[in-house]
Amino acid sequence: MRRLASVASLSVLAALALLGGCGEPQFSDAEKKTVASLALNTLPSLKPDTTNQYADVPAAAALGSTLFFDTGMSRDGTVSCSTCHKIDRQFQDDLPQAVGVSHTNRRTMPLAGVARNPWFFWDGRRDSLWAQALTPLENPLEQAGNRAAFAHYIKRRFGERYERIFGPLPDLSTVPANASPLGTDAEKAAWNAMPASQQDDVNRVYANIGKAIAAFERSIEPEQTRFDRFAIDLATGAKPEGDAAFLPEEILGLKLFIGKANCVTCHNGPRFTDNSFHNTGVPPVQGLPPDRGRVDAVAQVEADPFNCPGKFRDGDESACRELRFMVKDGPQIMRAYKTPSLRGAADRPPYMHAGQFSTLDEVVAHYSKAPLAVEGVSEVHPLDLSERERAALVAFLKTLSD
């Protein structure tokens, strides 16, 4: 009994150390500044996408929404963007790896705030939201279609809507029903037999499909959570009340997040991501194809005909700085993956690029132990967090969900 009483006393003392005499959370000025920088009210207005002149056109967003949920935008008529990006699940699917027409090797990423990313997919193999939107359409594991078939589908189902937004559709009367440079052998042969001008016509329609879907996805933004209400009160000096009042373990978790655990190094800003790529020693999944992350994506984004410097970009090339100055090689991009936003993370297990961890507790344990990477060099160093500290970090992460 004495031991139990002693443990309870230590817990009370630990909680009091986080609170002032009046029960207020104790943060240094530097800590307050860091916490304030993470609050959603500091998120700047969404910048125009100069590579997509239709990005903020309501009619384009409306068409993009229709296409996003349309299973006709797939080879067999059973898969849409929303198959993996479910509207009631933060636009993700709760699966370790996404399943479209077939089984993929990566986790579906949520879409809140996606238009603010400089790079897309876990490895950054696309450099604009509209170029990203095109990729699953022809991926044989996802929607498995081909761009000639999509052009015909748009003309048949949405011709008038398309032309009100993008102008006249090209003459598709002699375009094969199925053709693509990325499709089956028959589709590739049909594509190669098309004159270059006809290929450009189909590619232009295809690019506009991506631009419409991107216009819709720009509307998906993160929502305020308990953490944001706490952060605003902390910054203004107001007394946190209701759900904005953090429990002692949540305060400890926040302090660890911005301090000892150093999570904020990569999970920073109001979206809790630095938008960059890191090797954190996450193990591969047995049975999946080899996945080397960012190092293999560099060639893919450079070769993409729909990338920023390509002919289907709107505006001038000044928007293409990310691609011009990206890191192209070096050990730091080997098995490096994008830092995901932590907003809403507590409600969307499993975690990591292939769903390697089932719970936030497993994620925190991984970073605490920091195992060596199977390839390249992990940036993570052992934190040796106590059981109580790991639990506190998880408690804080849950405040980023509402």
Q: Would you kindly provide a written description of the structure presented here, covering whatever features stand out?
A:
With 402 residues, this protein is mainly alpha-helical. Helix content is 40%, strand content 1%. The protein has 14 helices and 2 strands, in the order ααααααααααβααβαα. It has helices at 2-17, 29-38, 58-68, 81-84, 129-138, 147-166, 185-192, 196-217, 226-236, 248-258, 294-303, 321-324, 360-369, 387-398, and strands at 277-278, 337-338. A two-stranded antiparallel ribbon has the order 1-2. The relative contact order is 0.15.
Measured between the Cα atoms of the first and last residue, the distance is: 39 Å
- Detail the poorly predicted runs: 1-13
Strand content bin: under 5%
Dominant shape = globular
Strand order of the largest sheet: 1-2
The largest sheet, given as strand count, sense and whether it forms a barrel, is: 2 strands, antiparallel
In which range does the helix fraction lie?
A: 25-40%
Count the DSSP helices: 14
- How would you spell out the order of helices and strands? HHHHHHHHHHEHHEHH
Task: Give me the count of strands.
Answer: 2
The quaternary state of the protein chains shown equals single chain
Radius of gyration: 24 Å
Structural class: mainly alpha
Mean pLDDT, to the nearest integer, reads: 94
Keywords: Heme, Iron, Metal-binding, Oxidoreductase, Periplasm, Peroxidase, Signal
Organism: Mesorhizobium vachelliae
Pfam families: CCP_MauG
Protein name: Cytochrome c peroxidase
